[in-house]
Amino acid sequence: ARDVAKIFRQGTGMFSAARHVRAVDGVSFAVPAGGCFGIVGESGCGKSTLARLILGLYPATSGDILVDGRRLADMGRRERARLIQPVFQDPFSSLNPRRRIRDIVGLPLAAQGVGGAEITSRVAAMLERVGLSAEMAGRLPAQLSGGQRQRVAIARALILRPRIVVCDEPTSALDVSVQAQILNLLAELRRDLGLTLLFISHNLAVVEHICDEVAVMYLGRVVEHAETDALFRAPAHPYTRALLASVLTPEPGRGIPDVGLGDTYPDPANIPPGCRFHPRCPIAVDACRTQVPQPRVLSGRTVECLLA
Ligand code: SF4
Ligand code: MG
């Protein structure tokens, strides 16, 4: 991703001014082939918008997303589908309730012009690959459990043998015991198929489990990007620390103050001046209200904080 931005224009009423929501506000990162890259932040930070941009579901306002040096924007829909596939949060709403599993998983193949008999055999093999039995092909989504439905969504994502899978909160709608099974399945598929994973979550504990690197997003920016171990061992941005404090039990000596973020996420149509985190930052100084922190590289990580 190279300086990617997405601005939504809302409110076109005659008497109300249009709002410009800077959902993604200049994001850059690189993911090595076969890597697992986590994107973390509270709801409203732009992570799902970023996922949809990478999936080509809508165009970026500016900047580029490239795979092997080729712009996604220059590829056709079919080519993009063979390269990048999604797994979304809620397998209940993302699977058509009136279609049988065979047709749901086989749809991407049908869209590429593959014939019926081949679809049936490839779907059966893929269902087994994700830990389901081939006879589930004849069932409807409502006849499956939440975890089974998410396995179906993963089978559908993998049926074209894509190189990249973008998972947006793939386990958030599932019971805790099932979450671990799905995370383990994704890790195993990544290893066996050489997949590159983008893993989007509001929960840092989930990405710690599976990702090599993590980018922390706040109001459309990546405020810290580091290897997962380094991020958890020594978070450099006050926002990363606050997020970590919210998922970890306080451990003396770990250097993570208990920072309460509160419930109210700021309005992405009204980004604070200076450092966009300053209204919630527990260590803000005067300069933070006026100076925009630039990304700085500090011992292998990138941080946007004046005091880091
Ligand atoms: Fe906090 Fe200032 Fe750093 Fe922003 S620049 S995160 S307000 S200390
Ligand atoms: Mg989301």
List keywords for this structure.
single chain; 308 residues; alpha/beta; three-stranded antiparallel sheet; 32% helix; binds iron/sulfur cluster; binds magnesium ion; nucleotide-binding; transport; membrane
List the SSEs and their pairings:
Layout: E1 2-10, E2 19-27, E3 36-40, H1 47-54, E4 62-64, E5 66-67, E6 70-71, H2 77-83, E7 84-87, H3 91-94, H4 101-111, H5 116-129, H6 146-158, E8 164-168, H7 176-193, E9 196-201, H8 204-210, E10 213-218, E11 221-227, H9 228-233, H10 238-247, E12 296-298, E13 301-303
Parallel strand pairs: 3-9, 3-10, 7-8, 8-9
Antiparallel strand pairs: 1-2, 1-4, 5-6, 10-11, 11-13, 12-13
What does the model show?
The protein is of the alpha/beta class. The chain has a domain at 229-308. The protein is 32% helix and 21% strand. It is built from ten helices and 13 strands. Strands 7-8-9-3-10-11-13-12 form an eight-stranded mixed β-sheet, with helices on both faces. Strands 2-1-4 form a three-stranded antiparallel β-sheet, with helices on one face. Strand 1 and strand 2 form a beta hairpin. Helix 4 (101-111) packs across helix 5 (116-129), helix 4 runs parallel beside helix 6 and helix 6 runs parallel beside helix 7 (176-193). The two termini are 24 Å apart. Residues 251-258 have low confidence and may be disordered. It binds iron/sulfur cluster and magnesium ion (MG). Iron/sulfur cluster (SF4) binds at residues 238, 275, 277-278, 281, 283-284, 288, 293, 305-307. Magnesium ion is lined by residues 43, 48, 169.
